[in-house]
Amino acid sequence: MLFNTLGYDIDTKNMNIRAANREEDNIIAKHFYHLWRDNDVPIESINSDWLEIVIKFIDRARQELAYKAFIAEIDGAIVGSVGCQIFDGLYPLALADSHRKYGYIWGVYVEPSYRRQGIAKKLTMQAIDRLKDLGCTRAILHASPSGKPLYSSLGFSESNEMRLDL
Q1: How far apart are CA 9 and CA 12, in angstroms?
Q2: Is 0.85 surpassed by the pTM of this model?
């Protein structure tokens, strides 16, 4: 038996990973908000209309980029989520899909009291399977410092992305 951070039993065999439905987009968006806050993004740095922005993004990604989200439930309660889609690109996508069709995983989130139980791993694996089904040649994501060990264990490698804060 596993225990969550509050000391309550977690019966992971009662965990269900399933596709999220449109009615759960608000939950996905709220998890994304909590992800920012967990990574020390100050509240004043988040637009006040963040919910509307995220919902519009999800709607567009669903229509144009094969977006799909998955949620983790334990005993009927949603405890985590992930979204994935075709990567929209940062520059013209002039290469053949057989060479470079990237998928993007974003918003991997698990409620704090359910972390370190393998839920984020199962959600991420579900997203990877979805991207494989779409014919993606690579899955990419941007990991938080706390998420890097998980993604490394799944075979993700650090990229050559370089940054310059302005």
Answers
A1: 9
A2: yes
